[in-house]
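Thread amino acids onto this structure.
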């Protein structure tokens, strides 16, 4: 990536993802539900954790397989509005365990 290229934007919170901040790729269709090798989006790690703490793999595959759909989920919309006020490198533990598969 060139030095002039803008930082990627997180599709959940809309904040930039600068190099060096906790980040990960989210499979829009979970790998366990046939999404291996399918489309992915780069997200802040905290946003990715919240997606998986909120939704099951089945829910992700069935109803939330696009960034737009993720943003419509009430808990994720509330989280995105909250975290959008934090700096791009902000990270904390997500409440609760990862949802069951």
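Threaded sequence (101 positions):
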């Amino acid at each position: 990536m060139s030095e002039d290229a803008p930082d990627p934007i997180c599709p959940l919170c809309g904040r930039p993802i600068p190099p060096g901040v906790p980040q990960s790729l989210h499979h829009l269709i979970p790998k366990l539900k046939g999404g291996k090798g399918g489309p992915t989006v780069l997200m802040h790690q905290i946003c990715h954790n919240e997606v998986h703490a909120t939704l099951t793999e089945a829910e992700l595959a069935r109803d939330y397989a696009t960034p737009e759909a993720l943003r419509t989920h009430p808990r994720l919309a509330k989280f995105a509005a909250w975290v959008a006020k934090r700096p791009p490198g902000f990270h904390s533990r997500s409440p609760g365990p990862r949802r069951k598969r």
